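Standup notes
- DV: blocked on the single-chain target, sequence here:
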Amino acid sequence: MAEENQVDNAQEKSPEFAIQRIYTKDVSFETPNSPSIFQAEWKPEIKLDIDTRSAKLGDNTYEVILSVTVTATVEDKVAFLAEVQQAGIFTIGNLSEAQIAHTIGAFCPTTLFPYARETVSSLVNRGSFPQFNLTPVNFDALYASYVQQRAAQEAAPASTETH
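- DV (later): unblocked, structure below
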C-alpha cells in the first residue's frame, strides 16, 4: 500500500505536456501591386513580425497562437504580404507558474513555428514569387529578453512629480 501511494504521488508530480491539436487559425496573402511588381527587378526587402498570445481554456489546457507576418517590398512597393496565425491547444500541468509561462512563451511557439514557416513558404510559392524560407527563430532567447524587460520595468522606480 505504501508503494502504491509513492507511485501515485510520483505520477502526480511529474510534469505534463501534450499537444492536443495544431491548426491554422487565420491565413492571408496579398499582392497589392501585381502584376506590375513582377516586372520589377527582384531585390526585396523583407520585414518579419512575430507575436504570440495565449488563453487558458480550462484546467491545464491552453491555446497558444503564433502570428507571423512577412512583408516583402521592392522599390518601396509591397510585393507581397503574408500573414499566418498558427495555433495549438496544449495540455500543460504540474509545473511552477514560471515554468508554465516559459512553456507557453517559448516551447509552444517553437513547436508551432515549423507549421507557420511551411504555410508562409507555400503562400509565397503559390503567389509565383521566388522560393522563400523563414530562418529559424530562437523563441527561448526572445522569451528571456521579454522576461528581462519586464523585470527592468518592474524594478524601475515609479516617477514622482512634485508641484
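- Follow-up: Helices lie at 2-13, 97-126, 139-155.
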